[in-house]
Amino acid sequence: MNIAVVVRQVPDLVEPLEIDASGAALDVDEVEFLINETDDHALEQALLLKESGGGSITVVAIDFGQVDDVLYTAAAKGADRIVKIPYDDDDRPPRPAEAAAMIAEAVKDIDAELVLVGSSAHDELEGVLAPLLALKLELPYLGVIRGVKPGEGGSVTAFKEFPGAAMAQMNVKLPAVLGILAADQPPRYVPVSRIRAAMKSTEFEEKETAAAVPEPNVTVLRMHHPEPSGRAEMLTGSEDEVAARLAEILKEKGVVQ
Amino acid sequence: MTTLQTDPGMEFLAQRVDGDPAFGCIQCGTCAASCPLGAAMEYPPRQLILQARSGNLDKILSSPSLWMCVGCHTCSSRCPRGIELADDLWPALRDRAMQEGIQPPAELQETFQNIFKYGNSLGESARKRLDWAKELDVPLRDLSKEPTAVEVLWLVCDYPSYYPRNQVVTRDFARILTALGVRWGVLGNKEKAVGDCDRLFGEEGLFEMLVENNKKLFDKHQFEKIVTLDTHSYRALEHFYPRYGAEYPVEHYTTFLADRLDLLKPLLTKPVKATVTYHDNCCIGRRAGIFDQPRMLLEAIPGVKLVEMARNRENALCCGGGGGGMWLDGHIVEHGGQRLSDQRVRQAAEVGAEVLAVSCPLELSRFEDSTKVAGLENKLLVRDIIELLAESMDLGEKEK
Lengths: 257, 400
Prior knowledge:
The complex is a heterodimer. By secondary structure, chain A is of the alpha/beta class. Chain A contains six helices and eleven strands. Chain A has a single domain (2-206), classed as 3-Layer(aba) Sandwich (Rossmann fold), CATH 3.40.50. Chain A has helices spanning 37-53, 67-77, 96-110, 129-137, 192-201, 239-252, and strands at residues 2-7, 9-11, 33-35, 56-62, 81-85, 114-118, 141-150, 155-162, 166-173, 176-180, 205-206. In chain A, strand 8 and strand 9 form a beta hairpin. Chain B has three domains: 8-99, no CATH class; 106-258, no CATH class; 262-392, 3-Layer(aba) Sandwich (Rossmann fold), CATH 3.40.50. Chain B is an alpha/beta fold. In chain B, the strands form two sheets. In chain B, strands 2-1-3-4 form a four-stranded parallel β-sheet. Chain B has helices at 11-14, 30-34, 45-53, 57-61, 74-78, 85-99, 106-118, 158-162, 164-179, 204-218, 231-240, 253-258, 261-264, 292-299, 329-334, 340-350, 361-373, 385-392, and strands spanning 150-155, 184-185, 223-228, 250-252, 274-278, 304-307, 355-358, 381-384. The chains are: A alpha/beta, B alpha/beta. Chains A and B meet through helix 5 of A and helix 6, helix 7 and helix 10 of B.
């Protein structure tokens, strides 16, 4: 099976996030990036499918943030081809509609039977990239998938959990785009020596795209850290003083008479 | 059939045993009997060598035993054939297992990824490396911002930089160095993890990457020696970095301060009245033979009554945190092992100690957790030697 996997860069929340001078966007210079978690699961699912039924994996990514590290890791894990889409704006990550248009163009050339992509990202919780990509590719889409098994005659079996712990098992005729929430097993660890070897041996295929970029209909007016509406009162003093003040507060709030 | 002798990944091990045939193990079983977790292992050290020699390398690579060694080095130090099990054989087998695609326990995977991505085992931001110094009341030279020649390049290392309990000790050490008139500096946000006493619990590629990056970083600076509080980093720098052509004079703080006892003693004015026992950690103890200096420092503190645990010096029981053990407690307990730190705090209490003194940054949290498990909370305090020195010098923080 020829599988395409889309991986994205998202801000690493280990770093404190800063707002830039415009007051309406993240300061990208102060942000570290890492692979989107569900995209990592999409890659793992592709590796499991390849291991069980053979085939080839092509990883597709837009050249933004520290994407090279992610792509070398993907190569070390077993991806056969890496396609990197040039992207010039270092200050602004691509919007989902923009990313979908660019990725769709690159994926069209791969002739993939199955396209796997994370069903959402922590900077894109709506999860629109995957369905937009399917729309652009004119392929069926199924999202929030928790595991994929090879199926019969050009199909796969996809698993999806619904509220109330009901699990659906679906036969998906290929080609199709699947939005992955979780792979059948957690993303694997690959030793650093293999990543370092991949850095020396892997060649990225650059895929220039001339996709028409839609103008956004939504403009961010302001981005800011949450503003506290009230503050906690810290009680200080001796145990007796603290107890007395606590009793007063409970009375004031009507908790005790 | 793959054996240790025929496996291409294992050839180098044979070269480590001078003049002996490859793996001249006589199957005496000293290693297995000495191993504090051997009884819980499917393949304790002796069995591991036997199985590997018998063509069952595949079996041992996929056994949970492979991830139960906590690098205490007791087997290596007692082996009559001088086989380096803890520092060479075990990490090589782990590396081989990972190359085969066998997954290390999940907690350890996360630690490897943290070191790879963030340059520290705790998965913290590099930008927060100097957070420990926010409340520091002595001047700090950040060599990454103002490069200057120093006597001591202090590698603060991961736990002392980030872990709140350790940060208290780190600040105390800064005050002690300053009080001794040492010209010291740190690498600030540029500092990255050094590695470990057994390289990196088998993650050889990651260790090599750290050595290469650190060599480039250290070579930019002028210093007489490196000093560190981290016994694991000390051992990595002293023993393994030279194998990769990265040789630097390095000292653990216990030997550095013991060499300056004449200067230190007049400053130790305030009595610290306590019955203290010292835990010999495996990196500077069994591996490097540093047994006397930590005791010399403790005995120099007025008021301290030093007592010894039954297992001390080269026979000390490990805290269980080495060899990646800090991140393998879950795996070890799941497979029938016990947390060694729980046993060790009981051994300290048995000899009437009120304070368990340590000199390795991993031990503060390990032993403090264990005092809670063993019902010794508030009865047995766990303190770094640095904290006791600082208290006697009236420099210490009133943390306890």
